Amino acid sequence: MARLIFRNIFLVSFFLMLSTSLIGSNEHEVAAKDQNTEVSDHHVTNNEATHEEHHTDTSPLFFIIIAVIIGALTRFFFQNSPLPFTVVLLLIGLLLGVLGRFDYLSVFDINGMTFDFSFMDRSIQWAANIDPHLLLYVFLPILIFEAAFAMDVHVFKKTFVNSTIMAVPGIIVAIVLTAFFVVGIYYFGFGLGKWNWTIALLFGSVVSATDPVAVVSILKELGASKKLGTLIEGESLLNDGTAIVIFMVIFVGLSGTVDSDTSPIFEFFRVAFGGVAIGCLIGWLIIKWIKKVFNDMLVEITAIIAAAYLTFFIAEYFFHVSGVLALVAFGLVMASYGKTKISPEVQHFLHEFWELAAFIANTLIFLIVGVVIAERTVFSLNDFILLFAIYIGIFIVRAIVIAMFFPAMKKFGYGITKKDAYVVWYGALRGAIGLALALIVAGSDSIDKEIRDQFLFLTAGIVTLTLLINATTMKMVVEKLGLTKLAPAKILAMHNSNVYLQQSVEKNIENLKTDRYLKRANWKTVRNYMPDFDAMDIPDNIQEQSVLAETRRRILEKEKGSYWHQFKDGLLGGEAYNLLTGDINTILDEKGEVSLSDRGDIENLLKTSSFLSKAQNYPIVGAFAKQLFFEKLIISYDTARGFVAAQEESLKLLESMIRAADEKEIVQLQKIEEEINENKIEGLTFLRNLGKEYPEIYNAIATREAVRNMLNYEKHTVERLLKRGRVAKGEADKMIANIESRMKQLRDAPPSFELPDAEEFMSEVSWLKEVDHKSFHKISKLFKSKMFNTNDVLLKEDKLQDGMFILVRGTIRITIKDKLIDVLGPGAAVGEVAALNNNKRAATVTAETPVTAMWISSSDLKHLVTDYPSVGEKIWEITANRYAYYLLKDIEPFNKLSEAQFKKELRDANLVSYSVNTSKDLTGGFSVLINGTAKDNEKIISAPAILSNSIFEFEAGSKVLFIVS
Predict the structure, then answer these.
(1) CATH architecture observed for domain 758-867
(2) What PROSITE patterns does the database record attribute to this sequence (predicted)?
């Protein structure tokens, strides 16, 4: 209840402030009109004068109140009307304007009774003389942001190229062609005698901007393609910005308020891209702010509302760039990146608020548009002829534009069909923005009055005709094109759902009959209220593949909904939600024609950037990179757990489908069940591997999830106690506030995890177990832990690389010239020879699985070998055995030995180090040069190499493994 009261207070406050701004900003127009009214009656008392002033001040507020009431009544009484809501409002506005224009709203004397309606006349006059900038600064931020914020960002991205084609090159072509048409009217002597090319281009920019409010609402009502509606709305959002930018470039040039040296093309790009940049910047700042807020509806929504208006104001007033494009950018940033930063409990009301704000704004705009058209347009009979000619002309122009770009638009994103193109063409309505721009022209003293009157009348007329003709017949056009016709598979799915619903209601009635309080009910009457669906004509030739695709699509929608509910309940993080929904949106684009499990390996979806692994080696950014690496692992866990939970919910949905399916459908549903189970197994496998390879991280994340679940349960329990009356409202509010403070604490400072220290890791290294405790502690301090993801490269062949790695967890593969040499597990050391001798790497070392390794720099390794000779000897021994195994395993007689036998022989081999140059006869058996060089008949051999059947001279520092075989 408290939240509801806060919401109502918030809405009332917002619209009262809006009303105040409307009143104050247009006061001078009303005052100007009052100066032309005879009010100089010497018998008017001071009280009467005060009363008259009071009426003047409040008439705009009265219009707003009446307009909102008219909007509500219109929506209530015209719900089933074939006329769109905005068209009805326009007609009512025209009627009010006509009444005001011909002074039908004044003082009436009927049978001696006086009725004074002058207050209504003053309100209409205020609306008729409204400042056009007010429409842009007050109403535009609401409509533009609401449209952008409510946009499906994924669908918008896919239609963005086509929307941009229509909104940028398309509208430029439309403006030029419209100007040609208008100049042609003048050239052939049909009118517009004072118009020139500049005015014609200005007119083209005004009437080329589309307003799809009515069309998009009709498409949604009819269940037409979401992709088509998004294309039309996306074009409108972008071309509003483009048209206003072009309009202002031409208008300021016409009015002489711009530097003549400024290039129009440069100015266009500055205004357009400058607006986008400002919108993105403010969006980023607001996201940073609301990220720190937790379930505070008033703070979050106030910040977003203020930011929407601030974006437009800063762009237009301070930087003189496109406020519309700034708002579009801001709205899209909030709808994409900002969606998961807004508290889940605030999301619903936020959308409700903007829907209500858009409803009130549209109500006011279309009523004002009607009043302005009826009150302010000046016209002659010839103007009406010109109006109908230009109305036809602009749609011919739009048809040319669509035909020009149709071949390109078919290839981008979702593409566009011919039927879609017809709707895009016919649905190009004109609305309030065009009229606002025309009012700006009408108020410019630098333009001839006859031109201004014609400009306003023609623009207002086109707005009226597109709404009265196109908007009212759009439903018929869409249905005629068959864009609302259901596919056979959807008809079957709906039929099955209807049957299932009827059966469920039947079972419920039978259960109700056993209720002792209801058993005497008139069940015949009750059955009259049962669902009564129209008989559906189910086609006989429904293809199994189409039914399978439709079922998959419904399962995917369920999975997508599961992700949102998990996020809303605090069980799924924002980053994981974005990852999963982005992935599923891509699959939904396939229309169910691919397997549910054909979405790529989840390991790839969750793969950590190799850059983070490499960055750990750099001293300054290493710690930061490691932290990002850990955060990515946390997101991976969150994503995999949410993925598995969604698959389980999908299986439950499938079970209900199977219960209502026939034998033929069951076979297909079982195939989908296998696909879902494959996804589930893959997710569970990933979680199991994560727990095995990063146990500390896994345990910390599991702890955080346990706390999060506990807090959610606690909150739901309090809500349940409140519902049952076990606690009072005030007590429940305090309890929930306490819970939410802990939720915020968990979000901002989740339970941390710590990797085992170096000593714990190093205790598993076999060749350090004989070192005394004090020395072991000192040696451990030289090592640092590093983490690598699958396929990350630890060491690169033929490259100089600092340091040696000791593998603690996971496995690595050793390759030479892309040939697999060996796979090593925990305890293996790699890179020691190159590190000690500053040599290039002999082989490439790659992570076979996620790897945790201890790293020591080359300089520290050299000190270690010097300070602890026994450790150095052990390192060389392990290295010698590994090199010998690589080199000898494929030659006789070693290739005939089993791996265990061969490794036993290597353990029995003798590693010799030469401190001075030494000659050795190796004519019998095999030896392996591990380090240094050997000379054989003037031929120099570098390590590692096989030595046999010759006399070799070894340089000082060489190490040789002698093998008896």
Answers:
(1) Sandwich (2.60)
(2) CNMP_BINDING_3
